[in-house]
Design brief:
Length: 240
């Protein structure tokens, strides 16, 4: 009994696969339409952003001195970590928001600013990403100015040096419309194939010769070809 049940399930699955294959023109057409619609949609709603970067050099030295000692270099290295943390503080970023009248919150701007420092250097690299190219550059320049003036005064240290102002921005996209369209096509194929296969498995109508044996529990002893009424009339006229 178990073997018979397993065999019946295999036949049903095979029929479902065949049903999907028979409908491949419709499946292909709907998939292509879904992919094209997805590409157009994500091309319009896909938001881009711009990135720019700059560098400042942190070192502690006397205002009247022009030579650097080993102690100056060591102090400057320790200050780098402090500046890295404080550049993303409310003290700096809220002043940037107020200065440029950005109309965003501190948390929003914080997600747009990243700070890094190469190992064993006193260089701080600041990167800003924003929806508008010019605004991204203005934000970075404002961060550098406020850091080298207001923040340095607050900490009581010498003013860091702006080595590199905001460079030319680079445009980036959050995602590729082509990739999204391909994903939609795969999802469409998967869903439609499952729907067509399931619909064929639950369809109890007599469509194929196997349905007679499976649904009506009758043995098939032969096949009778279908003859249309028009053909029958022609045969009757020929006999007369």
């Amino acid at each position: 009994m178990d073997n018979g049940g397993s065999e019946e399930i295999q036949i049903d699955l095979l029929r479902a696969v065949k049903a999907v294959i028979r409908q491949w023109p419709i499946l292909l057409c709907i998939t292509c339409i879904a992919g094209c619609m997805g590409y157009v949609y994500f091309s319009k709603v896909n938001s881009s952003y711009f990135t720019t970067s700059g560098k400042i050099y942190v070192i502690d030295r006397e205002e009247t001195g022009f030579t650097l000692s080993i102690e100056d270099l060591d102090v400057g290295s320790r200050l780098v970590e402090d500046y890295k943390e404080l550049i993303q503080s409310r003290f700096v970023l809220e002043r940037v928001i107020k200065r440029l009248q950005l109309g965003i919150t501190y948390e929003d701007l914080l997600t747009c600013v990243s700070v890094n420092s190469p190992i064993d250097t006193r260089i701080i690299e600041i990167e800003v990403k924003y929806e508008k190219s010019k605004t991204a550059q203005n934000i970075l320049n404002a961060i550098e100015i406020i850091t080298c003036n207001d923040l340095a005064y607050k900490l009581g240290t010498e003013h860091p040096t702006i080595v590199e102002k905001a460079c030319e921005t680079e445009k980036h996209y959050k995602y590729s419309p082509v990739v999204k369209a391909i994903e939609i096509m795969f999802i469409t194929i998967f869903l439609l194939s499952g729907l067509l296969g399931f619909a064929d498995m639950v369809n109890m109508n007599i469509r194929y010769k196997e349905d007679v044996v499976q649904n009506l529990d009758m043995n098939l002893i032969g096949r009778v070809s279908y003859v249309s009424t028009r053909t029958m009339r022609k045969v009757e006229k020929a006999r007369k």
